[in-house]
Amino acid sequence: MQQAEDFRQETRALGAVVAALPQGTFHEPTQFKAWTIMDVLRHLHFWNRMAHFQISDPGQLMAHMKAMQDSGSTMRAYEAAQLGHLGEQAMLDEWTSFAEQAADLFAVADPKARLKWVGPDMSARSSITARQMETWAHGQEIFDLAGVVRQNEDRIANIVTLGVNTFGWAYATRRETPPGPMPHLVLTAPSGAIWTHGDESRVERIEGRADEFCQVVTQTRNIADTALKVTGPVATDWMSKAQCFAGAPAEPPAAGSRHPRTPAGQA
Questions:
Q1: Rounded to an integer, what distance in angstroms lies between the CA atom of residue 120 and that of residue 187?
Q2: 203-234 burial, b if ≥16 CB within 10 A, otherwise e?
Q3: Which of 24, 146, 210, 250 can pair with 187 through a Cys bridge, CB separation 3.0 to 4.6 Å?
Q4: Span 215-240, pLDDT tens digits
């Protein structure tokens, strides 16, 4: 699956930024709910392992899910209990090396294979795409902490597709009904290609950079902090609550609250 290679490259891109940071930075709070880099790496590594278990050991996957539920602890607390023994360099090494193994496993998997997960089963393609999305989304707070403006590649097309496919989900998780059909998307890829989704419409339309659309649907940026052109009430409403990840309804970050930090020593 190409999506497995896209996940691999997303991990490598983020890993290069993390590896260049002073290790003391690993415990600084980011702009994402004050998570630290260690919190992010633990989270990504833990769920990469769970995705690997979907194929390699479904029994182990379900055992962890049950243990997490029975413990009564939060997701982050359970992740820390499992991986808190790893120091900074060890955590970085474990995350990067295991991600390669997960990419190798999914690369040769049947994309349509149904895999166990929290809640409904999912396809292997959806699983590894979700891992790329999580890596990209949680990577944003690390890029921001490092003061690095991310240079995206066209592999973010997978995240755009997730955003499109979860149009209805953004409303369902709030027990709402979409106020109309999905707006027409006209997005410019990092390569300059034009990606379109949805029925042609001049009334309900979202235009702009694909990476900024990804930032909105992953809730790493408020729509007000992008240059996306949003036309129509349905498009406006969707962009105020878009959510391409599972779980309870989540609110986008406040306008102006997420941005690349100015590195020390620079004006």
A1: 31
A2: ebbbbbbbbbbbbbbbbbbbbebbebebbbeb
A3: 210
A4: 999 999 999 999 999 999 999 999 99
Instruction: Return d(Cα 22, Cα 92) in angstroms, integer.
Output: 12
Helices in the chain by DSSP H: which ranges?
A: 2-19, 37-56, 58-71, 75-83, 88-107, 124-146, 157-165, 167-172, 210-217, 233-239
CA dist list (Å): 195 to 98, 143, 208, 213: 32, 25, 10, 12
Q: What tokens were used for 255?
A: 């306008």
- CB atoms closer than 10 angstroms to residue 4: 24
Band of pLDDT at residue 23, cut at 50, 70 and 90: confident
Cβ atoms 222, 258 nearer than 8 A: yes
Q: Are 76 and 43 in contact (CB under 8 A)?
A: yes
Answer whether 179's CB lies under 8 Å from 234's CB.
yes
CA dist 68 and 42 (Å) reads 15
DSSP string for 10-48: HHHHHHHHHHTS-GGGGGSB-TTTT-BHHHHHHHHHHHH
Distance CA 13, CA 18 (A): 9
Tokens standing for residue 73: 């602890």
pLDDT interval class at 265 (50, 70, 90) = very low
